[in-house]
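Reviewers of the previous submission asked for a worked example of the structure-prediction workflow described in the proposal, so we include one complete record here. The input consisted solely of the amino acid sequence. No template or homolog information was supplied to the procedure at any stage.
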Amino acid sequence: MFLVTYFNEVGTEKIMGRVADSTIKGFMYQFNLTLNQILKASDDVIKVEGIVEDIDVSFNDHVTAIQCKYHEEQQKFQWSTVYKPILQMMKTFCMMGSDLDIKFILYAYFPNEKEGKKLLDDKKMENILKTDNIEYICDYVAYLMKIENAQIDQLLQKPRKTKSDKEKIKKYFAENNLEIKCDLKEFLDNHFEFIVGKSYDELEKENKELLEKFGFEKEDVPDIVYPNAIQKIADLSIIRNDSKRNITKDETIQDLRMIKTAAITRWTRLLSNYGDVIKKKRKQLNTSLNINKRKRCFFIDPFLIENFDNDIILFLKNYVMRYCCKVKLHTPSVFCFVGYTHEQIDELVSRLYLKGIEAEEVKHFLKTHLLKNLKRE
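From that input alone, the workflow returned the following structure tokens.
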């Protein structure tokens, strides 16, 4: 078995660290809602992880900005749960100007709430503006009201506020009946909508049904098309360049038609049919792995794999024991580690040696030469 260093510029930034299962499912719910918006679009451009909200849907000069919330474990709905996203949207509305053609949608799932539009009237909104949450007051409410006190206005300009600053601001708002800067009725009637969303399973089911309508084989949608669609959105979500996070329905469908294998990633592991996805992947790999005399090359990006340093040795050992164990039949495999330095490869070779695995590092590697040789096999 040979280990090869493949130098390339890669991002070492991970999507996120270890987080609670509910938070991860919240990300998956947002990816599913994004896919849902893409598949239902006409000529709209969807920005994954939008500039305004989680999902920005644009057509000509109109923008629909969607914020997605997933509250699977909250058995009883309380308005206080959605105070923050509503205040965030109203703050954005006031700062951008009411003449802009924008619609804010709060799409939130609550297990015991009826799916569909939920009314937010002016009385409820006034209660939200009277919140006693000190963080909400300082971060949102303060920017919605006309401030007539120079000292308070000065405190609000501070990028970092002390506990004393926040308490003074809160006291000022509690003691004064302030006028709202923007048109509250205009915001509620024409620029805001609260939708109680579908459950996670229902949204996933609808997305698969939508994919089938685009002509994908029914048996391929759950195990190949849908997992790759979710992964595509996950990949877009971490791109820093705003313009490169744009996608359309036609582009998405075209890209998915080019993919013939199942995606196995940290995100697709969370799918309800992950076991079926694994079976499909195993079946696809068997075509190559069951043949003894074959040169195999693996390109691995260590920076995109969780617990890579701990798991890679076990993976390589298991692979060698099964696919590089017949001296006369098996051809040594090539492993290319994207972005690894010679020092990191040296350490990897040493660790393999301690496990009884012989590996050789190739110091000078030409990608074109490798691909040329692989084609001959």
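The two ends are 17 Å apart (CA to CA). We consider this example representative of the routine output the project will generate in years two and three.
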